[in-house]
Every structure is written in C-alpha cells, then in structure tokens.
Amino acid sequence: MPHLLIVDDEPAICELISEVAAEDGYTVAHAGDIRHARIQIERQKPDVVLLDMQLPDGDGMEFWKGLALADTQVVFVTGYSSVDSAIAALRCGAVDYLLKPLSLRRLRGVLGELKLMLQQHPLPGASDCFAKMVGQSRAMQLLCAHIEKVAPTQATVLLVGESGTGKELAAEAIHLASPRHQKPFLPVNCGAISPNLIESELFGHEKGSFTGADRQHKGFFERARGGTLFLDEITEMSMDLQVRLLRVLETGRFMRVGTHEEIVADVRVIAATNRNPEQAVADGTLREDLYHRLSVFPLELPPLREREDDVILLANNFLQKLNEENRTAKTFAPEAVQAMKDYSWPGNIRELRNYVYRSYILADDVIKGDFNSFELHGHSAGWGFEILVPVGVPLADANRQLILATLKQCGGVKKAAAEMLGISLKTLYNRLEEYGASGDMDEPSSGLR
Questions:
Q1: Which residues neighbour 124 within 8 Å (Cβ) at sequence distance 6 or greater?
Q2: Residue 307 domain flag
C-alpha cells in the first residue's frame, strides 16, 4: 500500500484528507509542523507528501527542498493562491498544487492518479530482494522479516555479524526492498581503503585540493545519490572521519575535500561491523554518538553454526552454480554431507563456499570430503592447530599469541589469517606492526596459497 504523509497545521484538513486517502488504499500519517514531519519521515519514508506551503515553524517549500527525498511525490497545499506560488511549486518538483478549501473531487483525482503511477513502478517482490540470501532456518526467516520491515523506511541500519555471515548481501536486500532500489547500491570496505584516501573516497575532492588531485573527484556519497551506501567494517574508520560521518548523518549535507560548498547527501546509509559494537565503543574504536546514530535499527546476522540445515542447502546451492557454469553434474557423497553438518564453520558462509569450490576442483564426479588438507575435522574451530594460554595472561598477550600462531598456520598469508581471525587485513597489519612482526612472514611472490 502506498504511504501518504499529510503536513498541515489544520486538524480538520488532515482529517478530511486522511479519510479520502484511506478509502483510496493509502496508509496515512500526519504532522502539524516541520519538526513532526521530520519525525514521521524518519519512521517511514512516504510515497506521497501533501504539504502546506505555510507552516507554524517554517516555509513548506524550503523544507521540501532540503529533504531531497528520492522517489517521493509532493503535492503542495495553500490557502493563498497566486501565479507565482504555483510556478514556484512546480519548480520544486511538485506533481500538483491544491487550493484551500479543498475540492473533494480534485483531491480524489490527484490521489488516484498518484496511486496509479506508483503501481506502474512497484518495488521488487520479496523473492527478488532475497534471491541471494539462501536459507530456510528460523534465524534466517526472522532476519528477512526484519529486513522487510525496515527496508521501506529511511532508518539507518547497523548490521552486526561474524566475518563471512553475508552482511553485504543483507545490505543489498534492504536496498532492493526499499523505494531506492532503482538507484545505485555502493558497498565500501572502510578497512580496505588507505586512511589517507578514505575521506576523499567518501566525500570527493576538488581539483588542486592536495598533491595529485589533478581533477575533481566525486566520492561515494555523490555517486550513490538517490540510492544506498553500505559502509562495511565501520570500526576501521578513523575517529576524525567518524566525526565527519556523524555530521553528514545528522545534517544530510557534506563537503568535498578542498571546498566549503555543501552538497545534499541524498543517500541511505547502512553500516556493518564484525565486532561487538558496544565493545568497540568501550575500546575507543567507535564513537558512542555515531554508534547510536547508526544503530537506529540494529540487525544481527546469525552465524552458520546456528542456522540448522542451511549448511547443506547453501553447499548444494554453491555446487549447483559450479555445475551450471562448467556443465558438470558433480554431487556430494554421504560422508561429505555428514562432515559438513558436523563442522562448526568458524569462517561461516565464506568458508563453506571456499570448501565447496576447492572440493569441486579436486573431485571427479563425487565429492567425498576426504581431501587431505581440505578435510573437515569435526567441530574444531581452526585447522587442527592449538595454542595453550595460561590463566591470568593479559588479554593483549593472548591476542598476540593467537594472531602470530594463526599467521604461522596460514603459511604467512596475511589475507587468509585475517579471514580466519575474523578481522580486517588493515587491523592485522596494525597488530603485526605493534608486535614488531610486520615483515616476519610476507606472502610469497609467486605460487598459489
């Protein structure tokens, strides 16, 4: 059902429009001033706004210009008609212009036309939105139900989950189920961009703003205009940049590096972290005010070990795609299925996908699950290598031992070690630099790992 927001300080007008809109199949919310209108928009993005031009706390047109709501239609309402005001309304992007006292016939006609227009450009169905999120477990059903609830709103979402649980897929599902689905979805890994470049990458820069800036550059906030910006590994962002991001979220505006001209940020922000965000706040890697601003609607992604029979469902899905791509008909042997069920999958979906891919390459027709180093070892959380940490050892020392042991077990391949530890590559490099071991185990210059 299309959602209508009525912004008018006359209760009788709101009641009249509400009755007519409800009869025509709209859900309705109303606000008597700009402040309450902002609250209603934050709760649920409207498909249509009927907006009075003169409100107790400001000018309706100026308020609308500052919103820059993608895919929302506005109809201005006024009791002071003039040619100039009608022209100004149309220049603001209004689809129509109604005079008080309202004509019921005219009102019904406008609402009917807008509803027809919205029906011609519907949101994608749930099956389309969740096509990449394979799973039938209770945990996944609950996650998808929450995504369906939050997607049509403008609320910022914080996705929390272990590495490899599919946070980017969940963010994309929110985008596809939202009114912004026809606009860009841009994922940004905050831990993979150099700290010296991330501000320019997010907000853009002007020509000559710093050495090497030989042209104007539009950042992710501009390139995602009208769509959704997914900020992964938000705790890897510097504190200074977190301040800037908080300001953008609160004001809806940003500036390119090297200029003082503000640009409207018409994007929906979804953030993600594989760390406990409250612990990140306590550790000083995430600002508390930014955490509260991002987690308007927090969503926790379940680890694979808590998703019941989804492991085999996912494995079969990965294998089917490989068979289709390579025109083969390989299958899992019963012992391989049992091994996958017994394993705890510390690397979650990413680890399962990699296992299926490796096993597919090695198998002739049947994947037996007994491929030496690729063999699964029951419920072990690693590759069969253990370290002993005595009780009372400081946490920092225990972390150091675990990181160095994992890196050794991975043959010095830092990317593989970071994935196994559930941290970003940038965080791993920072820890190794602290330990004075950044150059001890460099990746080989050639050969596959």
A1: 176, 177, 181
A2: no
pLDDT in tens, 283-317: 999 999 999 999 888 999 999 999 978 999 999 99
User: How would you classify the pairing of strands 73-78 and 331-332?
Assistant: unpaired
Q: Tell whether 380 is covered by a domain.
A: no
Rounded to whole angstroms, how far apart are CA atoms 268 and 263? Answer: 15
Q: What is the pLDDT of residue 282?
A: 93
371 conformational bin, left if phi > 0, alpha if psi -120 to 50, beta if neither: beta
Residue 447: the pLDDT is: 33
Residue 43 tokens read as 């709760």
- Whether residue 236 contacts residue 186, with contact meaning beta carbons closer than 8 Å, is answered with no
Average predicted confidence (pLDDT) for the chain: 83
Take residue 327 and report the two structure tokens written for it.
């025109």
Give the list of residues 6+ apart from residue 48 with CB closer than 8 angstroms, or none: 2, 3, 4, 5, 26, 72, 73, 74, 75, 111, 114, 118
Rounded Cα distance, 108 and 18, in Å: 11
Q: Which domain holds residue 398?
A: 385-449
Q: Do 180 and 78 reside in the same domain of the chain?
A: no
Question: Which amino acid appears at position 194 of this protein?
Answer: S
Give the tens place of pLDDT for each residue, 342-378. 888 888 999 899 889 988 888 889 998 654 434 444 3
pLDDT in tens, 30-53: 999 999 999 888 888 888 999 998
Give the side-chain half-sphere CA count within 13 A for 31: 24
DSSP string, 365-389: SEE-S--GGG---TT-SSSS-----
In a domain, 308, yes or no: no
